[in-house]
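#lab-general

N.A. 3:47 PM
ok so I finally got the sequence cleaned up, no stray characters, all 724 residues accounted for. can someone with queue access submit it? mine expired

B.Y. 3:52 PM
send it over

N.A. 3:53 PM
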Amino acid sequence: MVLKINMPAMGSLSLYLMQRLFVLLLCVLFHFNNSLSYSLKNCTIDYSEDALAAVFLDCSNRKLVSIPDDIPRDAISVTLLNNLLKQISREDFGNLSKLKILLLDENQIAQVDDGSFIHLVALTELYMSSNKLTNLSGNLFQGLSNLTMLDLSSNNIQFIHTSAFQFLPSLQTVMLDLNNLRQVTDIQPILQLPHLQTLSVRRNLFLLFQTEDLLLNMSSGLKVLDVSDNKFERFSITTKIFPHLEILDLSHCGQDSGLKWDIPDKTIVRNITQLYLGFPLIPFDELRKVLQSLESLRHLRLSYMEKWIHKGLLATVCKIPTLKRLDLFYNHVANLSAKLVTCSQLSELDLSVTHMTELSKGSLRLMKHLRNLKADTNLLTKVPDDIRSLSSLEILNLRDNVISELGCEDFLNTTRLTELYLTTNHIAKLDRCVFEHLNNLKVLDMSENLLWTFGGAFKISLQKLEFLDLSKNFVSILEKGDFQGLGSLKYLNLVSDHIGRVTRKTFNGLNNLGTLNVSLPLEFENNFRGLNQLENLTVHFNIDGSFKSPHPNNYKAFYHLKSLKIFKIIFKGNHFGFPFHVPTAMLQAMKHLEDFTAENLYISAPDPYTFQFNPLLKSLTIRQSDLSDLDPELFQPIPNLQALDFSESKLMSLDFLVQANLSALRCLKLRENELTVINETLFQSLPALTYLDLDNNPFTCDCSNAGFIQWVKSNNQTLVVNAH
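B.Y. 4:20 PM
back already:
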């Protein structure tokens, strides 16, 4: 390497040479030791518009073999999922006193030194599932006095020291699923926790689970116990140990020969309000007796119980007077609903994923209190006739079926319905009468169907509807008055690849619409007039093979959007280098605009006067463009800009930032550009910058970037991510 040095005066020669040698040393170090190169080289931080927002750090999937030493001290959450960590030491988290959430799942951690978490005094959630821990020592969790959630699932834990949980007085939830615990006494230290609410020991190696084996002189405050997927020979719990138990999951418990559920005192089952069972491993007669003893049961789940259902189990279930919710998903039983005729007490019923082709006629007729019915992910070809008799129904989920048509009488008497989900069916058309009786409906999702016409269904009915999703359908024309009856609508999604025409006054009547996502053809007539409350607009333009730039007059459609705060324009496809004519007056009416996004819109930098009418703009995103000729004058009208994203914009220099006067800018994203060298002095013009993302730029790792590298390492304000 040859350095050309202009000699200074003799008096400052020594100082000058030391400075130059220091710069040279930095270059050599960073060139040959990439691990020293940039701050947060192994992690990313998501930017938040809130300057005081918590710092959430993501260091996942980086093949890390040790905890990064550059984690910000004020981090609230750190995610280290799916790395190669094998050990945690006392020095790893020494300066993270504000950390509240730590995720160490999917590593190879086999050793955690005692006291490794002693400095994490604010930690409330610790996740260490899918590691290689075999035992929990007495001082492992020292210092975690505020921890409320601990997940140690999918390890090889077979030993828990009697003092392992002594430092966890606030712990409420413990997850020890998929470990190698064998005796109920193994969990005794956990049951002594003063605030324990939930314990899950699913799929361990228990053969017996009997509270009589516990050496406890006190009862547990446990409310939720999950022991599912254990090959119990015998299960027995008592009120003395679990006086507050309300929710019990025994799904898939027992051996092929069966499970003996011994109930030494009836009080324990009388207190249970939720019971989950799966697979018929409890003998039929014993299970019936248990169900008959559940005097407080409100929620029962029976999955994969075809054998006992065929034998008549649901007749017993329907006699539980307190039962309000019944889940029967994953039961493949012909005419399953016919076995529920006497379940008149239910308010919630889940029949999803039962291979159902129809609801047996009259099976739900007596359910006068049913409020929520789920029959999704089945093979229904039409709306079941029994729906008409459910006058109390409020939520109906029929998504993921093969319904091809909606009839005028399908929802004739369901006048209390507030939510209706019909997404992912085969519905091709609507008639005006279909929804006319749904006067209280607030949510309607019909996305991913085959709709080619709305048939006037939204012109006179659904006056209380607030949310409507019609995306991914086949309607080709949006016409005047299509939505004129939806005066209460707040959210509308019309994104589709098939919309070829949008006529004038299409959105007439949508006086309260706040959010609109819509696909528009390049030639559109609509002018958005009447959308006085619209604050969030996303417009998708699809470019087909016959490219044609929108006529300049088309942009007058946006002149009426005076309340708009968020505006996104997304072009999909290749415009073959032809520029879109985007008049500066397009944004003229948007005096309250705070967030503007343009993807694949500009093939050259926008006109310097583009934002002259938008002084409140806080966030600007221009992606998939060519901004190599950007004029700094573009930023003069928007001095309040806080977030700027110029990713994928062919930038080779950041010199424009020096003259941009962005004194309020806090977030700068420049991913996937062509930056090779950055002059660190330009950051003097960005005094508020706290977040800088430079991912996937072809940086030159030599002396020309030494000043920038030193700035990254020495500044105490700006977090630089992905700059390596």
